[in-house]
Structure formats: structure tokens, C-alpha cells
Design a protein that fits this description.
single chain; mainly beta; 16-stranded antiparallel sheet; 1 helix; 2% helix
Length: 316
């Protein structure tokens, strides 16, 4: 087996090693137990893939300067972080050596090991966050280079009550923060009425998949003002620069539970002083003056109505 020397120790690896153009190691897979001395202490990269949870061997990767980038661990171990000691099965680092992300669990989902199986192994953690002390089961805890908390990713099905500039909101999927600690975005667990320059809109993204809590559909500026939201409950009549008017409605698409029926897809709005931008999937961004926009509730055409599906959003 190839043996490579890193600034953190010696690794005996499988043959498939990737290199940067200058010849330094970019990624490799550990072939046996090798202890690395990392900024978080002595850690053993994953080298075994013989269980239902771990049927694959993820690679250890490095930054161009030699610092570890991604480190999957053989076993869950408690590691020191800016939020205290946390359990980890995978950690990532900045090129400075500062911890970037901590994943308490890192099982491989398959037909033999489901999301529910993995979630059942998650244990509640009490974390001191910018929104106060919270008890959650995080998929991932994300830190900034200076150690500030940037986001929490929640397990599907988990809900957290978060204080926001709009009041307390039940949140799923994720919560994100500015480096200052101010709330940046949340993913509402159900439609939330939001006061906007276009009037009251229902904010909710049925397409939120919950893989990462960094980017969420209800977004705020650092001063607490509304920055943007996602909705499928409204249509908009907008005045274009040439004076013509255009109707923007949620795009219709086949329902995931019944391809013969249709459902409304999301529209993402972003606000700036006197302006609003509309973004659709596979469409270019359209920015217009807010004074030229009229909003209305959007309802599916009768022939497109479909029963609620359990996938994705939950109940309206």
C-alpha cells in the first residue's frame, strides 16, 4: 500500500491518490488505522467500510497549503469546538486549521440504511447560540473562520422555535447567522405571513430539501429588515421598464405523487430599496420597481388541482 507523509502524520492509503499540480496530496483513502495529529487533537480517519452504516470509504482531502480539508472519522469522537465539546464522525477545516463543519453522524444512506435509521442514532445537544440556548439534534454545525456560528442544519422532521424580526417562527431544515451573530435566514416549517413592500405574502418553500442549513428561504438583512423570501402562494402583476405589464405566476409542474396532475412551484423574491427581484427555476432574474408591482393570491386552475403529497413540504 502507498504511504504518504502529511504535516499531521503518516497515512497508509489505497492506491487511488489524487495530487495537486505541484505534486502535493489532494485526497486519499486510508487503508488502515493511522492516527493524525490535527488542530482538534488525535483523530483516526475512516479506514473500514464493513457495516450497514458505512459501506463506503470517503476520502481524506487537503487544501493546497497542506492543511486537512475534510476528515471522515473511523468512530464518533468528542472534539473541541467554539461551542464546546461536540460528537463528530466527520469534520472539515479551513486552510488556516480552524474547524469549519462538524457532523455528529456520517453514515452512508442506502437501501439497507435509511435516513430514519441514521436519525435514530442522533442524540440531542444543548448548544449556546446567538438565539439563546437550544436543544437540537444537528446534522451539521457550521463555524466561520473566527469561530462564530454560521448555521445549524436540522434533521428532517425536527422543528425549532426561532426568535426573528417577525416574531417567533417554527423552523425546519436550518438556521443561519451573520458573522456578527445576527440572524441571517430561517426555513419556515409552515407558511408564514410576512409584511413586505408588496403587502403581506405567505413565505414557504416546499422545495427546501434540508441538506444544508446555510441558505434558507426567509432571509433578513443584518439590520433586521426583510431581504427576501420564497412563495408559491402569490402571483404578481409587474410593470416593466418599457411600460408594458407582465404577470408572474408560480410555475406549474408535474406533481411528484401523480405525474398527471400539476402543482405550483416556488418564486423567490429579493428586496432592495425601491426594487424587487423575481427568480424562478431555469429563468433569468427580473428586477422591477416595487411601486409597479401588484400581488394577489395564486390558486391552481381547477384541472391542475392535486391531493397533498407527503413528500417535501408537509401540510399547508
Amino acid at each position: 500500500m502507498p504511504v504518504i507523509t502529511t504535516p499531521f502524520g503518516v497515512l497508509e492509503t489505497l492506491p487511488d491518490i489524487e495530487f495537486f499540480p505541484d505534486g502535493t496530496v489532494q485526497s486519499c483513502i486510508a487503508a488502515r488505522a493511522c492516527t493524525l495529529s490535527t488542530p482538534l487533537g488525535s483523530l483516526v480517519p475512516q479506514f473500514n467500510a464493513s457495516t450497514l452504516r458505512k459501506r463506503q470509504l470517503p476520502a481524506v482531502s487537503f487544501h493546497p497549503n497542506g492543511m486537512i480539508r475534510n476528515l471522515p472519522l473511523e468512530e464518533q469522537i468528542m472534539v473541541p469546538t467554539p461551542l464546546g465539546i461536540l460528537p463528530a464522525e466527520q469534520v472539515t477545516f479551513y486552510d488556516t486549521g480552524a474547524v469549519k463543519r462538524v457532523f455528529p453522524l456520517n453514515g452512508t444512506l442506502s437501501g439497507y440504511w435509511t435516513q430514519e435509521d441514521e436519525a435514530a442514532m442522533a442524540v440531542p445537544l444543548i448548544l449556546d447560540t446567538p438565539i439563546g440556548s437550544v436543544e437540537i439534534k444537528p446534522v451539521c454545525v457550521y463555524f466561520g473562520p473566527e469561530g462564530n456560528l454560521r448555521s445549524l442544519t436540522l434533521w428532517p422532521g425536527s422543528v425549532l422555535c426561532v426568535p426573528t424580526p417577525l416574531g417567533s417562527i417554527r423552523v425546519r431544515s436550518g438556521v443561519a447567522f451573520f458573522d456578527s451573530g445576527v440572524l441571517r435566514s430561517v426555513e419556515p416549517a409552515q407558511p408564514v405571513a410576512v409584511s413586505t413592500p408588496l403587502g403581506e405574502l405567505l413565505a414557504f418553500d416546499q422545495d427546501a430539501v434540508g441538506i444544508c442549513g446555510d441558505q434558507n428561504s426567509l432571509r433578513f438583512c443584518e439590520n433586521g429588515a426583510l431581504h427576501g423570501l420564497t412563495t408559491a402562494a402569490h402571483a404578481f402583476d409587474v410593470e416593466l421598464e418599457n411600460g408594458r405589464r407582465k404577470n408572474l405566476s408560480p410555475p406549474l409542474r408535474p406533481h411528484p405523487c401523480d405525474g398527471e396532475r400539476m402543482e405550483a412551484g416556488p418564486i423567490t423574491l429579493e428586496f432592495s430599496p425601491g426594487m424587487v427581484s423575481f427568480m424562478f427555476a431555469d429563468s433569468s432574474r427580473l428586477s422591477v420597481k416595487t411601486q409597479g408591482v401588484t400581488s394577489s393570491r395564486f390558486f391552481l386552475p381547477l384541472q391542475a388541482l392535486s391531493p397533498m403529497c407527503s413528500m417535501g413540504a408537509g401540510k399547508w
